[in-house]
Amino acid sequence: MPETPLDETRPGRTRPDETAPDRSAHAVSPSSLAAAREVRAVFSRLRRRLRDSTDTRGLTPSQTSVIGWLDKQGPASVATLAARERVRHQSMAATVGVLEERGLVERRPDPDDGRSRLISLTADGRGLLEDRRRAGEEWLTRTLDDHCTEDERRAVLAAMAVLARVTEL
User: Where is there biased composition of kind Basic and acidic residues (predicted)?
Assistant: First the structure.
């Protein structure tokens, strides 16, 4: 299959005057398409339900995303956070400012560059995330226990194993 030149101004896109690659050479099964759509839709609804089941303490989704990322990845600069969230540096600086005012993050000198500062979670920030995760897990545990049979819960575990394998590909 011939390669289509990429439009360097729009990463991952072909040039407007070129045709896109023919993906029909590898047809997918109807069950793969249905499963992909269903997984995406169900995970989206589940994510909303988990988010709704927890106390956000007035945090915006962007603020929550930043503290979650810092928890997983560790300290980062405002520039790194802005790039990760795909927002302007000024917008991220404002987001970090609110989180700092609330005592959820703190700024410390970058040990590799004394002119730069790194943003990291405080104990209160970690506590907020742990509380949210625990509340979401408790809601989901109760829901599965109250509304699903043992066989259904085992089917969920089996499906999760398959999805975990898919994420590793």
Answer: 7-25
Cα–Cα distance measured from residue 114 to residue 116, given in angstroms and rounded to the nearest whole number: 5
Distance CA 153, CA 149 (A): 6
* Helix or strand holding residue 113 (H, E): strand 113-121
The H or E element that residue 48 is part of is helix 30-52
pLDDT in tens, 126-147: 999 999 999 999 999 999 999 9
Joined together, the tokens standing for residue 5 give 């030149």
**CA 146, CA 156: separation in Å to the nearest integer?**
15
Torsion sign over Cα 118, 124, 127, 133: negative
Burial of 67 per CB tally in 10 Å (0-12, 13-18, 19+) = buried
Is 69 exposed, middle or buried, given 0-12, 13-18 or 19+ CB atoms closer than 10 A? Answer: middle
